Amino acid sequence: METNRFSLTNVALATIVLLAIFLVGILIFGPNTFQAMDADHTVNATAATQDKHAKKPTPDEILKLLKEGNERFFTGQSSHPHADAARLALAGTENQGDHAYATIISCSDSRVPVELIFDAGVMDMFVIRVAGNVIDTDEAGTVEYGLAHVYTPVFLVLGHSQCGAVTAVAHKLEGVGHKLEINIPALVDNIIPAVERAKELHKDVHGDEIIPYAIEENVWQAIEDLFMQSPTARTFVKEGKIKVVGAIYDVGTGHIEWLDTANVDEILNRVEASPDKQTKTFADN
Fold first, then answer.
1. Residues 119 and 9 in one domain
2. Staple partner for 251: which of 111, 115, 196, 245, CB 3.0–4.6 Å?
3. Which stretches of 75-111 are DSSP H helices?
4. What is the arithmetic mean of pLDDT over 21-34?
5. Within this chain, do residues 20 and 143 fall inside the same structural domain, yes or no?
6. Alpha-carbon dihedral sign for residues 60, 66, 71, 72
7. Residues 6 or more apart from 193 whose CB is under 8 A from it?
8. C-alpha–C-alpha distance, residues 143 and 134, integer Å
């Protein structure tokens, strides 16, 4: 009993001493001292998180990774990285935002297996797939998530040869082809300006020969639609945080043609001058 009483007395004395030190600290340094210490800890933790994301490759380095990956795929030398059990275990414990380096929107076409054609693996890419690689509200929101919350420094619009969605729109505008199911016109209406622009730019091209030109114009249309709807994307590009690029995948060869990035700057400038662009960056809570 004496031993227990002695231990309890020591604990009580230690508690009183610690409380006294705490009170003296407040009297000497002021009540905001400990709040400031906690704030410093929070700021340091946030800075550490941001620094972790900042360690991703630069946009130019990522484009080099993408091009090299496609070259390996195209030449039959894929290395199939980040596809083992260790990578899966990592995906189960870590945030994709610490790893994914590109946000990519491509067509849903089964001939365009995105990770495979870039010789990439788990947690390497934030991929959006939709018929015709169009960007409407849902797709724009998903792109914003990839850029602002997965912290990908590159956004790629990937069109492809023999695109069924572009072909369907081209045929519809020519008054040929089959009827479209009830929900498809609203899905592909973003492609109409691309086909019309291709026809305007290539007046000597007729019939299905216009389709490859329309496929390229559809890539630029998707980028314009994103910029029109997303102040976040526009700001990130202007601040140099991300690079937006376009490319076309050949489903018959596996090779990717990279489009001129100067067109992206022209599109951004055109959108910035438009009174119809979205200017509200954040949703109401």
1. no
2. 111
3. 85-91
4. 47
5. no
6. positive
7. 221
8. 12
